[in-house]
Design the sequence.
């Protein structure tokens, strides 16, 4: 059997969307799946170097890897009225050139932040270290992602929501594209279609059995948060809209790429529909 590694982040939504496969609820003929969990910027960097065949990425990274990876339509996370948060110590007034910690150069929140705060002094660190860096005074502020947006210390307060920056840049009707999955173009097309179908089924099954799967993740210490926080978090980032891309989500991703191109983050304007797997190939091949 071919062994295929799925590389995802250790945050609860990625774990939730993959573990229907890990627990054997969903499988794929002649393929044995394994997984590895790494922070999102590490995944972005490894995607840039073509390390993994199937990998979770920040949407903002995709135009940089479009020649080597196709975008999968499933296991996507968007914000709608919420998202990463710029936090600081309570009562602190930030200067124009404040020092800020971001979770990685190629993350979606980093691109939006750098557009909104061009004079800030940016340092990058693992997302798990950002909250403590602000508390310690290592940086003046930091952008929290993943579960941290629900659990940050009471000594901290929100300076600005990335959602608000997104709305100012993109308009008020589009959800905020945060993360998705990419698949290597080295995989034969008919097999890539099967991988996408399997991963889509995994997210669908996870949603259908949310309560049971959540309990199993908690019992095995596979997530960093308690049951009530997990339930709330999954409804934010691993919800029914995570199963497969919708028309409005396509529009949102394209708007993100348009904004990035306009501000010099990309060398050309990318339309995500042109870089997904052409599923009609399998139908044509079998006709």
Sequence:
């Amino acid at each position: 059997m071919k062994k295929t590694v799925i590389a995802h982040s250790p945050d609860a939504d990625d774990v939730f969307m993959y573990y229907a496969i890990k627990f054997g609820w969903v499988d794929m003929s002649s393929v044995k799946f394994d997984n590895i969990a790494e922070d999102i910027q590490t995944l972005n960097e490894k995607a840039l170097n073509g390390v993994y065949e199937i990998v979770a990425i920040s949407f903002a990274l995709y135009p940089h890897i479009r020649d080597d990876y196709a975008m999968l339509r499933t296991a996507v996370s968007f914000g709608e009225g919420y998202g990463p948060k710029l936090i600081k110590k309570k009562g602190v007034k930030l200067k124009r050139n404040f020092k800020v910690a971001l979770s990685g150069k190629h993350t979606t929140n980093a691109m939006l932040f750098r557009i909104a705060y061009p004079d800030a002094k940016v340092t990058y660190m693992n997302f798990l270290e950002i909250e403590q860096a602000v508390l310690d005074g290592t940086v003046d502020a930091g952008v929290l992602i993943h579960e941290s947006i629900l659990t940050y210390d009471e000594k901290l307060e929100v300076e600005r929501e990335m959602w608000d920056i997104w709305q100012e840049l993109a308009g008020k009707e589009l959800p905020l594209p945060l993360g998705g999955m990419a698949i290597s173009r080295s995989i034969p097309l008919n097999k890539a279609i099967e991988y996408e179908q399997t991963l889509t089924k995994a997210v669908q099954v996870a949603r259908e059995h949310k309560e049971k799967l959540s309990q199993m993740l908690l019992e095995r210490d596979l997530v960093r948060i308690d049951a009530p926080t997990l339930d709330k978090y999954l409804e934010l980032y691993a919800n029914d809209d995570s199963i497969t891309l919708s028309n409005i989500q396509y529009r949102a991703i394209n708007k993100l790429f348009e904004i990035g191109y306009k501000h010099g983050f990309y060398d050309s304007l990318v339309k995500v529909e042109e870089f997904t797997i052409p599923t009609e190939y399998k139908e044509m091949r079998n006709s």
Summary: The chain has twelve helices and eleven strands.
